[in-house]
Amino acid sequence: MSAVRRVVIAAGDAWVDAVATALLDRLAAAPDLRMCLATGSTPLPVYDRAARSPESFAQASVLLLDEFGGLPADEPASCDCVLRDHLVDRVPLAEYRSIDPDADDLAAELRSIDTWIDGGGIDLAVLGLGRNGHLGMNEPGSPPDGRTARVDLAPTTIEGAQRYFEGRAHPKWGVTVGLRDLLAAREVWVLATGAAKADIVVASVDRPATTDVPASLLRNHPECTWWLDDPADS
Ligand code: F6R
Hints:
single chain; 8 helices; seven-stranded parallel β-sheet; Rossmann fold; three-stranded antiparallel β-sheet; alpha/beta; binds fructose -6-phosphate
């Protein structure tokens, strides 16, 4: 039974406060929450706000959702660095699991992420929304039963990522937790802000589910909340 909820909040501080408060409420109800967290730009103010209550995270575990491949080790826009800057290095955690796409034995690295997921599942996946409907780095056409994998990025994703890298790097691939495990998370939140996301929100929430728009597959999820600001819902 699908239970997609659409929560629309005024853009700016009100949106950030609402999502951060909901996250802290989840942690209060289940301190040992196992979270899979996106980076990109949308969730960062939410993490900043939630990190003001560091004690809330002490028993929680975090799995990084995805990571770009082939980056220099000190690249500040890697998903790992970004999540550390905005949350992981600011709060105590029971466990933080990042992804190393450049591991010598990538197959073993992918397996170990799947093993982490199999060790208790994902209680809450906090996701952003790609302009093409991607979730993590699961681009249009990704298999709904796919697990953690090395994936090629869509041309629009490669181009869009230049907002983060500002010419320092041009990643064309990455490693992402697969759709199977995101769709199997006990609860999924999709965070989308700004008018530029409005069309893909409609395609994801109001149209039939299709693998051409990975986010639309969440229509069949039993506990999915879309946290939109009013421009993204326009
Ligand atoms: C990042 C990620 C991506 C982004 C998406 C939206 O970890 O998984 O799927 O969530 O590309 O990015 P922003 O929030 O920058 O618009």
